[in-house]
Amino acid sequence: MTERRIPRYRDLAPLVRFERPFGGLDHKLARAQTIWDLRELARKRTPKVAFDYTDGAADAEISLQRARQAFQDIEFRPAILRDVADIDTTTTVLGKPSQLPFGIAPTGFTRMMHTAGEVAGARAAARAGIPFTLSTMGTTAIEDLAAATDPQARNWFQLYMWKDRDRSLALVDRAATAGFDTLVITVDVPVAGARLRDARNGMTVPPSITLTGALDAIRKPRWWFDFLTTEPLAFASLDRWSGTVADLLDAMFDPTVDFDDLTWIRDRWPGRILVKGVQTVDDAKRLAALGVDGIILSNHGGRQLDRAPVPLHLLPSVVHEVGDDLEIHLDTGIMHGADIVAALALGAHFTLIGRAYLYGLMAGGESGVDRAIDILRTQLTRTMKLLGVGSIQELEPAHVRLLTSTRGNRHRYR
Fold first, then answer.
1. 224 or 331, which is more confident?
2. Do 113 and 83 meet the contact criterion of CB atoms below 8 Å apart?
3. Does residue 157 contact residue 134 with C-beta atoms inside 8 Å?
4. Model pTM?
């Protein structure tokens, strides 16, 4: 029979670890193990109107849900007994090296999420050795972003086609002069999507403080302090605007844009060109014939057409048709490093993250973006090791199987 005794301090001491009940921000970021953890921290620190602008999508948000579900439905097929002591996550994107197979996608109105805004994202991207994309709807000027980052940083500029062509060309010229090496032309915004969360929250530019917002502000004082004590929030490339973002998009963007418009932009821009928002094989083939350097399979993070094609599902068909003619990048729905691995295995040359980076930004500014990138890097590396893959170049379709959800949470193979 086991003899009982009273535990002694020297026996208990190694087992007990006390944590500060109210850890600082660095402590909270370090405890975040997933992008979803950063999302929850961001939700607690950011007013609802700003959080929902980032988190939300169009109409019933089905496009976003399906894009994320597609990654969850991936079945990996690991190889065993492979030497994976050293993992190489580097790749080449549009002729230049990237330390990781993902970059930061263009996001609008970024200083509303956190006053550090695009500069925080660009600096974090530069440290990680990956590209950062500045949006036409950004809140930092082209020249200011270039000045705030290392000269060796790789910055891309995203262009929306305006009704005023001269103003569009002026932005293109400014980006080239500032040293941006790639132009990302977004083509899926003839009109604004129905972003219902923003409408219900009374989202305006600049943000206005409603009674509900004022009550919310009491619970998020740090955000409001930063907002009220830093440079006024505005679109850096646009005239001052007062109203909803949807009204701005409808007033500014040109629904008559066609393939001929891409031709004259290509002739004007000295660097590489990506076309973002491709959602059919036929359009991918037409763009390949036009001679662009790459395309981004994207449904705009689900923020435009609801029930749009899922980029991951579209990827194998596009790779089959034009994979040898141009680079194929992918965004929408990426929330885990394993999502990136799946896209690369199915033939994507590169991926882009939007919300995943913004959750980090809202959670902790520049340090939060660093943490988001680090989380994805760790997950990416671990997944590659578990698959028995030592480099990005070794990933191939045999490593994954696409499943399609059916009723009863069962799956059929695709």
1. 331
2. no
3. yes
4. 0.91
CB 206 within 8 A of CB 234: yes
Q: Which residues are catalytic?
A: 300
CA 217 to chain centre: 27
How many Cβ atoms are within 10 Å of 99's Cβ, its own excluded? 14
Which residue, chain included where needed, has tokens 């969360």? 197
Could you tell me how far CA 391 lies from the centroid of its own chain?
23
Evaluated on CA atoms 227, 300, 380, 406, the torsion sign reads positive
pLDDT in tens, 175-193: 999 999 999 999 998 888 9
* Contact in structure between 156 and 184 (CB atoms under 8 Å): yes
The predicted structure's pLDDT at residue 409:
44
Give ∠ CA 234-277-121 in degrees, rounded to 5.
45
H or E element, residue 284: helix 281-290
Task: Identify whether the C-beta of residue 136 lies closer than 8 Å to the C-beta of residue 171.
Answer: yes
Cis before 47? omega within 30: no
- 67-124 per-position pLDDT tens digit: 999 999 999 999 999 999 999 999 999 999 999 999 999 999 999 999 999 999 999 9
What value, to the nearest 5°, has the Cα angle with vertex 402 and ends 398 and 407? 150
Which residue is it, tokens 């993992």? 87
CA contacts within 13 A on the Cβ side of 374: 15
245 closest CA partner among 46, 43, 56, 42: 56
CA quadruple 27, 148, 132, 66: dihedral sign: positive
d(CA 95, CA 221): 45
* 119-192-361 Cα angle (round to 5): 25
C-alpha 172, offset from chain centre:
22
Distance of alpha carbon 83 from the chain centroid: 32
Residues sharing a CB contact under 8 Å with residue 197, sequence separation 6 or more, in sequence order: 52, 53, 55, 56, 203
> Of residues 344 and 237, which shows the higher confidence score?
344
What are the residues whose beta carbons fall under 8 Å from the beta carbon of 193, sequence distance 6 or more?
Answer: 57, 58, 59, 246, 300, 303, 304, 305, 306
Element holding 221 (H helix, E strand):
helix 221-229
Tell me the residue type at 394: E
Backbone angles phi, psi at 186, to 5 degrees: -90, 130
Residue reference for tokens 């980052």? 149
